[in-house]
From TrEMBL:
GO cellular component: membrane
InterPro entries reported in the protein's UniProt record: MFS_trans_sf, MOT2/MFSD5
GO molecular function: molybdate ion transmembrane transporter activity
Keyword Phosphoprotein listed: no
Signal peptide extent: none
Transmembrane helix recorded as keyword: yes
Cross-referenced Pfam families: MFS_5
The protein, known as: Predicted protein
Top-level taxon of the source organism: Eukaryota
Keywords from the UniProt entry: Membrane, Transmembrane, Transmembrane helix
Residue spans crossing the bilayer: 26-50, 62-82, 94-116, 122-144, 165-181, 187-204
Length: 232
């Protein structure tokens, strides 16, 4: 019944919480994914008003298709990187930093580039932002296969879905808060916040690489010690 299902759900979340608390790598990976996804979902709702702050006439369909093409390009780049056995923890730091820069562009253009006339075509600042947004979508395309690779490395399969759902709770709360207050803050502030989140994700990714390398080195040392013959 509902009571037993509720108990099972609570038991699963307890297992997830225990796994997160006992393994820093899982906690870091979950935080990284939440920060990136939170920025990505916020971007989905804000790109239209960012490109047309004065009701500029922008080709929404063409822009969306360009975003999808950029995302496909990112996925293709990710498949090549993974095929070359490149270290995911290494190149994802660069991806997060690039993402942070691209979502900071609306903040810069808001202060530097003069606004377009009301009802005109897309402004020069809008074109710069569009270029940055396409690069961000490419980073999104790289992100998904790369985060899945890291999940398979660090999160036990039997608890993987529960652990990731655990991290989606604050993510969904954040997105709801942003959407509820979308008119309370300027768009530049929202994008600045997303840029900060992505920069934090890059820092956490570097920490994850350090912890992962340390864990591998410790494990290798232990295996070497076990293989060495005992002194007579």
């Amino acid at each position: 019944g509902d009571a037993s299902e509720g108990k099972d759900l609570m038991a699963q979340f307890k297992v997830a919480a225990k796994a997160i608390a006992s393994d820093e790598k899982i906690a870091l990976l979950g935080a990284i994914q939440s920060l990136f996804e939170g920025s990505m979902y916020t971007f989905v709702f804000l790109w239209t008003p960012a490109l047309s702050p004065n009701d500029e006439d922008i080709p929404h369909g063409f822009i969306f298709a360009t975003f999808m093409l950029s995302s496909m390009l990112g996925s293709s780049i990710a498949s090549r990187l993974l095929a070359r056995k490149m270290k995911v923890e290494g190149y994802m730091q660069i991806v997060f930093l690039i993402s942070a820069f691209t979502l900071f562009l609306p903040v810069v253009t808001n202060f530097i580039v003069p606004p377009a006339e009301k009802g005109s075509s897309i402004s020069f600042g809008g074109c710069l932002q569009l270029l940055g947004f396409c690069i961000f979508e490419s980073c999104v395309g790289i992100f998904w296969p790369s985060i899945m690779k890291m999940r398979s490395q660090y999160i036990p399969e039997e608890a993987r879905s529960t652990i990731m759902n655990f991290f989606r709770i604050p993510l969904n709360l954040f997105v709801c808060v942003v959407l509820y207050n979308v008119n309370a803050f300027p768009i530049a502030v929202m994008f600045g916040m997303c840029s900060i989140f992505l920069f934090i994700a890059a820092i956490l990714q570097r920490r994850l690489m350090f912890v992962s390398d340390l864990h591998r080195a410790t494990k290798a040392t232990e295996m070497t010690a076990e293989d060495e013959p005992l002194n007579p």
